[in-house]
UniProtKB/TrEMBL annotation:
Species of provenance: Rhizobium rhizoryzae
Family of this protein: Belongs to the short-chain dehydrogenases/reductases (SDR) family.
Highest taxon above the source species: Bacteria
Gene3D superfamilies membership: NAD(P)-binding Rossmann-like Domain (3.40.50.720)
Keyword list, A-Z: Oxidoreductase
Molecular function (Gene Ontology), one example: 3-oxoacyl-[acyl-carrier-protein] reductase (NADPH) activity
EC number in record: 1.1.1.100
A Pfam family this chain is assigned to: adh_short_C2
Name of the protein in question: 3-oxoacyl-[acyl-carrier protein] reductase
Entries under PANTHER family matching the protein: 3-OXOACYL-(ACYL-CARRIER-PROTEIN) REDUCTASE, NADPH-DEPENDENT REDUCTASE BACG
Length: 262
């Protein structure tokens, strides 16, 4: 299948590693030009070199920290200078600290709301006018399976990422007539550094070994394994493709069947 995105310009947030990098790599393999961003210049440069060595879509990078007040302005300026605009926006942010609802202090809520919700919405609004003008655009927001079934000890993530579900559905209905899609992709247990960190935190909280926690987690997944970043990235790239033009306002799970709800 031809994804129809050769030469399209993609901005992928938090793409120095993990899920963001997986989507960026998959987009480049389909011929898109991708701008990676994050807080590790060394990792970003290494990943761009690796993607460019594949000889398909071009990759470039820019340092970015969504906690900075001028992050959105800087990102829009960078992608304009390097690629001339954005056709595909992949909203991806790091996850907040684990904890219960009682751990959700006003300070934590405000801090993570800024980076996980406010910056995402503001950046999307900044690139929408050009997408509307050209009659084509793809907006993909990475969230978590916790928006379907809240994950224990991840109260902040469940709360803030849940807010993006209502926003995405509203956005999708507003921009569909302009040839723009807006979807959410929900990772389950995809093997990344973040999963290792969360399993480590759960092991400490439960007084168990990391291996015990990991084994129990895998046993609860119908596929009986963790997903790979490559599998996740492939689904993300399809949702940003030309053939996916009639898929919008959706929340797509990539979880090996783990979510029990319909």
């Amino acid at each position: 299948m031809d994804f129809g995105i050769t030469g399209k310009r993609a901005l992928v947030l938090a793409s120095s590693r993990g899920l963001g990098l997986g989507i960026a790599t998959a987009l480049a393999q389909e011929g898109a030009n991708v701008l990676l961003c994050g807080r590790s210049g060394e990792k970003l440069a290494e990943n761009c070199a690796r993607i460019n060595a594949l000889g398909k879509g071009k990759a470039d990078w820019v340092w970015s920290d969504l906690a900075e007040d001028d992050a959105v302005t800087a990102l829009v300026k960078a992608v304009e200078e390097k690629f001339g605009g954005v056709d595909i926006l992949v909203n991806n942010t790091g996850g907040p600290t684990p904890g219960t609802t009682e751990d959700m202090t006003p300070e934590k809520l405000d801090s993570f709301f800024q980076t996980m919700v406010l910056r995402v919405i503001t950046l999307t609004n900044a690139v929408l006018p050009n997408m509307k003008a050209q009659g084509w655009g793809r907006i993909l927001t990475v969230a978590s399976s916790g928006v379907i079934e809240p994950i224990p000890n991840l109260a902040l993530s469940n709360t803030l990422r849940g807010a993006l579900v209502g926003w995405n559905k509203t956005l999708a209905t507003e921009v569909a007539a302009h040839g723009i899609t807006a979807n959410m992709i929900l990772p389950g247990r995809i093997h990344t550094d973040r999963i290792d960190e969360l399993d480590g935190a759960n092991a400490k909280r439960q007084g168990k070994s990391l291996e015990e926690v990991r084994t129990a987690s895998i046993a609860s997944i119908p596929a009986k394994r963790l997903g790979t970043v490559e599998e996740f990235g492939a689904v993300g790239a399809f949702l940003c493709s030309g053939p996916a033009a009639y898929v919008t306002g959706s929340t797509i799970r990539v979880d090996g069947g783990a979510a029990k709800s319909i």
